[in-house]
Specification:
Helix content is 46%, strand content 18%. The chain is α/β, with parallel strands linked by helices. The chain has a single domain, classed as Alpha/Beta hydrolase fold, catalytic domain (Rossmann fold), CATH 3.40.50. It binds D-malate (MLT). D-malate binds next to loops. D-malate (MLT) binds next to loops.
Length: 265
């Protein structure tokens, strides 16, 4: 693990392997552990998985969270590791950050993998949901545990919960180690994120959109529609996965990403 100083925070960055750079950006409320299988096995690539500010072993400042800030942090990590441009894979909130990278730092992204994510901004209803989650996270004593209890049923495919209890335990552990300032910061950043739909028609890079076949948070239909708005984008579903294919179906997810990267770069 490397420590990288970015503006106003120090980040924990997990780096494994050799080869061209492949950055994994986790979603909410997770950390690099979401990519534990891809960090361990993904031959031919230098895998870089930061804990975003407010997550995992990174510092959790009291405020200042936004998609732009997260994206600039990823760029600061690339700078620290002397990577000029990388393939970038983001899941859900990680996908929102990839959109921001493409808006702000397009030359640094060679190819994008968008997992279980969406380009649209929050609806009014979703914004009300963020306020509820912020109140839940701030609840003394319950905090991250309450967030875990609320989210886990919709994060994982029923099959994952029934057959692989260790995956649910890993997800719970990740959520529960997230500091409250990080939870609140990410919820505010997601609530305030811009609509990335206008960006989609402008994209001219290789893109793969992945979706868990049983994802109820960002459905496969939404993933397919997203791919349809990006010229040349490919779309694939990960069978037997919910919102977290890299943890729920690691081998298939790794293979889909590896085959895509091999074919386009
Ligand atoms: C995520 O998985 O990153 C979040 O659930 C995304 C969101 O809440 O919009």
């Amino acid at each position: 693990m490397r420590r990288v100083v970015v503006e106003g925070a120090e980040l924990a960055v997990h780096v494994r392997g050799d080869g061209p750079a492949l950055v994994f950006v986790h979603g909410f409320p997770f950390d690099h552990g979401l990519w534990r299988h891809q960090l361990t096995t993904f031959p031919g690539w230098r895998r870089i998985a930061p804990d975003l500010r407010g997550a995992g072993l990174s510092a959790a400042p009291a405020g200042g969270y936004s998609m732009a800030r997260y994206a600039d942090d990823v760029i600061a990590v690339l700078d620290a590791l002397e990577v000029a441009a990388a393939a970038v894979c983001g899941l859900s909130m990680g996908g929102y950050i990839v959109f921001e990278l493409l808006r702000r730092h397009r030359a640094r992204v060679r190819a994008a993998i968008l997992c279980d994510t969406r380009a649209e901004a929050d609806t009014e209803e979703a914004r009300r949901g963020r306020a509820e989650m912020i109140a839940l996270a701030r609840d003394e004593g319950a905090g991250a545990r309450a967030i875990a209890d609320r989210m886990i049923p919709s994060l994982l495919a029923p099959e994952t919960r029934a057959e692989r209890p260790e995956v649910e335990a890993q997800v719970r552990e990740m959520i529960e180690r997230t500091p409250v300032t990080g939870l609140v910061g990410a919820l505010e950043a997601m609530r305030d994120r811009p609509d990335s739909t206008p960006l989609l028609a402008e994209l001219k890079l290789p893109v793969l959109v992945l979706a868990g076949s049983a994802d109820v948070m960002t459905t496969p239909e939404a993933g397919e529609a997203l791919a349809g708005k990006i010229r040349g984008a490919r779309f694939a579903t990960v069978s037997g996965a919910g919102h977290l294919p890299p943890l729920e179906q690691p081998f298939v997810t790794t293979r889909l990403i590896a085959d895509f990267l091999q074919s386009v770069l």
